[in-house]
Design a protein that fits this description.
This protein has 333 residues and is mostly helical. The protein is built from twelve helices and no strands.
């Protein structure tokens, strides 16, 4: 083992990083030009996929980064959606304010629920978050003076991204608004992954007793990321309102939470791009493949098959797929 082997490994690592950056740039470019080549229905679907991917990223912060599998992110998603809808119909149609207020309210709701949930781990944590999601759904159904019950909130005006800008009435313009927020938050979460805080969260995931023994306040860390993930899910809910211009109790229901967790599992727990890819695959399977004439009405069955195939064929998810690199390595004797 000598300098040549080390140099070869370093070259391969550099090539891999360059390949990932090139792939990311290609995906961003494709997303940017999509409205110019796709129709309104496809663009609307792509906007919903980006919103759902942002929700999956919030689930990944808990499940993949911290080791806290959750079925409660639909609660924060619903809180953000209803908050944005109320702000849009009663206060202002400026999207920036809707996003900030939705994130703040969702984070505030996450404080008391998180204080209770982070005291548990494993299946107990999963069940607690499921209960939190069901409470949020029940509140959306029964708190009629605020949520309008099962009728939901409609008549939401088109979003205005920033003060002084025109309202976005076209699907393509709304898509660019969603894409800009999505890329900004994805970059922020990516940057978070290289901080000491993220390293501590990985330590909690891998060996919490040891982290506690060396002095880390693990519950405080877990509560912080729980609230941050809740705020991120709230932003996704606000974007959902900008796209749909309607919100109902179903947006805070179990199905949304289950699909988001499924997206993280299929994409690869702990991987940001895997969570996004899994979200796209889950959404397209449910809403596109599930509506084809040959399999009409069997979307849940297709999702179940997809999950089984992913578990057996891709134990590390989509993020575990490694394409061969066209690099040459010098052998040493």
């Amino acid at each position: 083992m000598n300098r040549t082997a080390t140099t070869g490994a370093g070259t391969a690592g550099t090539a891999g990083a360059a390949g990932r950056r090139l792939s990311a740039a290609a995906v961003v470019l494709a997303l940017a030009v999509a409205p110019f080549v796709l129709g309104p229905y496809a663009i609307g679907t792509l906007s919903r996929i980006l919103v759902f991917a942002l929700l999956a990223v919030s689930v990944n912060l808990l499940t993949g980064l911290t080791g806290l599998p959750t079925l409660g992110q639909s609660a924060h998603f619903g809180v953000g959606a209803y908050t944005a809808a109320i702000v849009a119909t009663r206060l202002t149609d400026v999207g920036l304010f809707q996003l900030l207020i939705a994130a703040g309210v969702s984070a505030l709701v996450a404080v008391p629920t998180g204080w209770l949930a982070v005291r548990a781990r494993g299946v107990v944590f999963l069940m607690l978050t499921l209960a939190i999601g069901e409470i949020a759904y029940s509140a959306a159904v029964n708190w009629k003076p605020v949520t309008n019950g099962t009728d939901g909130i409609s008549g939401i005006p088109p979003v205005v991204p920033l003060p002084g800008m025109p309202a976005l009435a076209l699907d393509g313009l709304v898509y660019f608004h969603v894409l800009a927020v999505f890329l900004l938050l994805l970059a922020a979460v990516t940057r978070l992954g290289s901080t000491p805080f993220a390293l501590a969260l990985r330590g909690i995931r891998d060996n919490e007793p040891r982290m506690r023994a060396i002095g880390y306040p693990t519950r405080r860390y877990a509560l912080t990321v729980y609230c941050g993930a809740g705020a991120l899910a709230g932003v996704a809910g606000a974007l959902w309102v900008s796209v749909q211009r309607f919100v109902s109790p179903g947006d805070a229901g179990f199905e949304i939470a289950a699909l988001a967790l499924l997206a993280v599992v299929i994409g690869g727990s702990g991987s940001l791009w895997g969570a996004c890819a899994g979200a796209a695959l889950v959404w397209l399977t449910r809403d596109y493949l599930g509506n084809l004439e040959a399999v009409a009405g069997r979307g849940p069955l297709l999702l179940g098959l997809l999950f089984v195939v992913a578990v057996y064929a891709l134990p590390r998810g989509l993020a575990g797929v490694r394409l061969p690199l066209m690099t040459t390595r010098k052998r040493t004797t």
